[in-house]
Amino acid sequence: MSVKPELVCPAGSLPALKQAIDHGADAVYMGLKDATNARNFAGLNFDVQSAKEGIRYAHAKGRKVLMAINTYAQAGEEKTWQRAVDTAASWGVDAVIMADMGLLDYAARTHPGLRRHLSVQGSATNYEAINFARDAFGIERAVLPRVLTIPQVEHVIQNTKVEIEVFGFGSLCVMVEGRCLLSSYATGESPNTAGVCSPAKAVRWQPGPDGLDARLSGILIDRYAPDENAGYPTLCKGRFNVNDETYYALEEPTSLNVMSVLPDLLRIGVSAIKVEGRQRSPAYVAEVTKTLRAAIDSAVTEGSRFHVKAPWQQALGKLSEGQQQTLGAYSRPWK
Question: Which of 224, 247, 270 delimits the end of a domain?
Fold first, then answer.
């Protein structure tokens, strides 16, 4: 088999970071408490004290810390993003994850020794884009958007020397990451700029005669019956009335789970498998990390004899959106 890929897990808080490290993550990714990262939710992310403690904790156990500075710098506020890069370098993180080309250029010029990864928000879906970022900004890894089949991922890997990281578990994105305009249409903000799909200030749950209404900036996103669990409203996963039928018109709430194709991902040579979910709880991070750690290790050891064990599937099934799982774009049977 190929070299074992790194398991890269989310750290939206210090407790989540420690759970990821304790349960087998090779690396964690985190962000600051501001708009420089694409999970800028209230109550999440790191200040100076928690970041330094998290980095110390991870490095003491021989693990890596990656810092996401993966939104796009806004005109007139470039120094906020540049300071984030300076901060990452001063704290001794193992890499920064960035999408903005101007910021990548700043990091390459100002901190040439700081390892640079191209974020999924950079929306690089072909090897030409990745090789351009390598030649121009010295990136050493690229995170692929969740829109490519396994043969397409393999084609990218075969045509670049840049390490390739793919998503392995967590919420899907119906858009090509880095190009989403839906949330900004509804709220004036987006993950590319403000760092969140659905800003908390725009979210409202309102009881009504027909159930619980979930609204985003006043727009009705979903209506939940009394016996339904109310999800956090995001525009792409709402239920809408189309031609007198109400359903998930854009995307159903479901989670990506690549355990069944791990041998294929190892065979084609992916360098890292990433878990989505910096907005999730430490308990979620612990369970997903532990399960994928066991599955990846087993895939490396067993090769073609690998099979997904029922307890792994059950563990991740309980943590999936809508209790549903999919291979997403990795499997396109109509092609």
Answer: 247
266, 276 Cβ separation under 8 angstroms: no
Asked if 293 and 169 count as a contact pair (C-beta separation under 8 A), the reply is no
Domain assignment present for residue 177? The answer is no
- Number of structural domains (the chain) is 2
Q: How far is CA 213 from the centre of its chain?
A: 28
Q: Tell me, yes or no, whether 335 lies in a domain.
A: no
Do 124 and 206 share a domain, yes or no? no
Residues 6+ apart with CB under 8 A from 44: 12, 13, 33, 278, 279
In this structure, is residue 240 part of a structural domain? yes
Residue 189 maps to a domain? yes
* Residue that terminates a domain, selected from 217, 247, 277: 247
Global confidence as pTM: 0.90
Supply the DSSP string of 263-304, one letter for each residue: HHHHHHT-SEEEE--TTS-HHHHHHHHHHHHHHHHHHHHHGG
Mean pLDDT across the chain: 91
Nearest to 288 by CA among 23, 95, 37: 23
- Check whether residue 57 and residue 193 sit in a common domain: no
Question: What is the Cα–Cα distance from 79 to 102, expressed in whole angstroms?
Answer: 11
Q: Are residues 200 and 149 part of one domain?
A: no
* Each residue's pLDDT tens digit, 26-85: 999 999 999 999 888 888 999 999 999 999 999 999 999 999 999 999 899 999 999 999
Measure the CA–CA gap between 290 and 23, rounded to whole angstroms.
5
Quick one: pLDDT band at residue 334, thresholds 50, 70, 90?
A: low
Full residue range of the structural domain in which residue 232 is found = 182-247
The pLDDT score that the predictor gives to residue 67 is: 98
Q: How far apart are CA 45 and CA 70, in angstroms?
A: 14
Residues 156, 293, single domain; the answer is yes
Q: Which residues contact 3 (CB under 8 A, 6 or more apart)?
A: 269, 271
- Could you give the CA distance from residue 159 to residue 165 in angstroms, rounded to a whole number? 15
Q: What integer pLDDT is reported at residue 1 of this predicted model?
A: 46
d(CA 232, CA 2): 39
